[in-house]
Amino acid sequence: MTAPIERAPLGSLRSQLLRWLLIPLAALVVIDAVSVYNNALEAADQAYDRSLLASTRALAERVSIANGRVVADVPYVALDSFETDTLGRIYYRVTGVKGEHVSGYEDLPALPRHVARSDAYPALVYFYHATYRTEPVRIAALYQPVYDDSMRGIALIQVGETLEGRHELSRKILLDTLARQALLVLAAAVLAWFAVRFVLRPLMRLTADVEARSPTDLSNFDPDLVHREVRPLVAAMNGYMARLQTLISGQRRFIADASHQLRTPLTVLKTQAELALRANDPEAMRDIVESIARTTDATVHLANRLLTLARAEHGAVAADLQPVSLVETARQVGLDLAVQAVRKDIDLELEAAGEVMVLANPLLLHELISNLVDNAIRYTPAGGKVSLRVSAMGMGMGMEGGLLEIEDNGPGIALAERDKVFSPFYRAASSQAANADGSGLGLTIVRDIAAMHKADIKLSDGRHGAGLKVSVRFPPLAS
Fold first, then answer.
1. The whole model's pTM is what?
2. Where does the source fall among the domains of life (predicted)?
3. Which domains does the chain have, with CATH numbers?
4. What are 96-105's pLDDT values in tens digits?
5. CA–CA gap between residue 457 and residue 9 (Å, rounded)
């Protein structure tokens, strides 16, 4: 037998909701923070490049031709205007139309061949990264036309800037972004906590109502007090309590009826025992003991019927349904009760046309047939006849059910009483006249077992309008 799989408890619904809300939110915030940081860096680079281009243009305006050569009038004060806004150091270089060094730092890295011209500006400007004096720098290279009456050409103006300012701005942007996103996550967590707590409040009230209920209070919970998604659960709880109420009511009724029915034979037994204690005549003593034996048999029979009824009503073994031979079960019941039939000189016969299989609990199916045959034998006069008939019954679409019929030539049951005889302890007038010791439980047991097997039961007159015929129709095996 396979051992049941142990499942870990689900834990808190509130914590699970918060996790499912906040973990994806935190992931989205991280993605958004990376995107915002990259966009901010791109904007900062554009701003720094624009400032670098402005410095380059300022130098280009001071490049001219004098005495047939390119000259650059670049005093330090010319660079001071754009150095004041940066934390880095500035390097520049001016190259003439023939590639000669004109001014600035001669060893400033040259413009690489693979660098593309910037499309962000109409000027012939190129931006590139390089290393100068062991420090990373960002360089703007601008081609500037120069000319006079003696010559014309294009000079190259390069302005480089160290990256301390850019890195400082990047750190500031990163810290500001992380701080804002952290505050956003914290605010979202607080709001989500309050939102989940508020949303779960009706469920918590329902939990409190369930815990506060007394064991005997099986009234319905109001589904309108919870959210629409939880209402099916409340409806299921109400349905379960209704079924539980029905079960408890049936148990109470059964206990009351059983105690009432057992009280009479037990009182008789007590009276008979007291008479036996006072009797001095052996013959009288024997008669009393025989009476006690008969009363005990009747009481045992009643107790067995009560136990069978309890088992049938509560469905103790109803789930154990399997294909069972209706013919074989009827034959076994006939063999079990043959002695009882012989004692009353009753002709007990079985008519079966082929094999008939039904989906049933073997024990309860045997009990159903046994109750019907036992009743037929009890209420059929001596010299009578009881017939068991088993046959297949067509249901259409190639499906066949089973039909069980028990017919006798006893007193029968009046038409007006045929619905009442299925109630516990009810006995028809004809039954009381034929057998005063009956319990009134046989047909009740038959009804409950038939219901558990989804079988239909019908009472009708026997052949020629005499006696009683009980028909039980079982559904197809594959239904």
1. 0.46
2. Bacteria
3. 16-171 (3.30.450), 212-314 (1.10.287), 322-474 (3.30.565.10)
4. 888 899 888 9
5. 47
